[in-house]
Amino acid sequence: NASPCRSSGPVKGCDMDWRDEGVLLSVRRHGETSTIIEVFTVAHGRHAGIVHGGASRRLAPLLQPGAQLDVSWRARLDEHLGTFSVEGLRLRAGSFLTSSHSVYAVSHLGALARLLPERDPHESVFHCLQAILDQLHKETVEVVAVGSDQPAARALGRAVAAGVATETFPLDGY
After folding, report:
1. Whole-model pTM?
2. Which of 7, 8, 109, 119 is surrounded by the most beta carbons within 10 Å?
């Protein structure tokens, strides 16, 4: 039985070593020093993996939901959980703590992103999520949805799907 991952040329779902930019959706402890994180990446969708030393003083501040990370994922087989190495790109946790609606929104957006299939890229949803997270410290949020994933982007940002759509939402009532 020949594995499709061993054929010549790239095969979707057979990347066992990749690097991408992602938004951290959730973190949970694994053992005494490690964590299991779930990130939503541009090219690889929602992905989980272990971060060795993720509970350490050095990495714990980076691993906060809503953080923008540069992640490298490795696994022996594509179906395995794999391990992440992470670098912080944009750490948003401090700005989220200034308002209760921001903390709630990060939790809610993470829950909505977890409804998407694992390891299925949704580039426009990623950019919509990123735009919302970047604006949560403001009194209103403006979301632009572009591309073929507009129904999923609407679920995240409630943007109107008509080519390029913009809608503003007041956050003072939350």
Report:
1. 0.72
2. 109
29-45 residues labelled b (16+ CB within 10 A) or e (exposed): ebeeebbbbbbbbbebb
Copy the structure tokens of residue 6. 């061993």
CA distance 157 to 131: 9
39 or 151, which is more confident: 39
Tokens of 91: 């750490």
Report d(CA 1, CA 115) in Å as an integer.
34
Q: What does the alpha-carbon distance between residue 40 and residue 146 come to, in Å, rounded to a whole number?
A: 18
List all residues 6 or more positions away from 143 whose beta carbon is below 8 Å from its beta carbon: 128, 131, 132, 153, 157, 158, 159, 166, 167, 169
Residue bearing tokens 């992103």: 113
Alpha-carbon span 52 to 120, nearest angstrom? 25
Look up residue 43 and give its DSSP letter: T
Q: What is the pLDDT of residue 141?
A: 62
Render pLDDT for 108-156 as a digit per residue (tens, 0 to 9).
888 888 888 998 998 888 888 888 888 877 666 665 555 545 555 555 5
First to last CA, the chain: 56
Task: Quickly list H helices, 65-169.
Answer: 93-96, 100-113, 123-135, 150-157
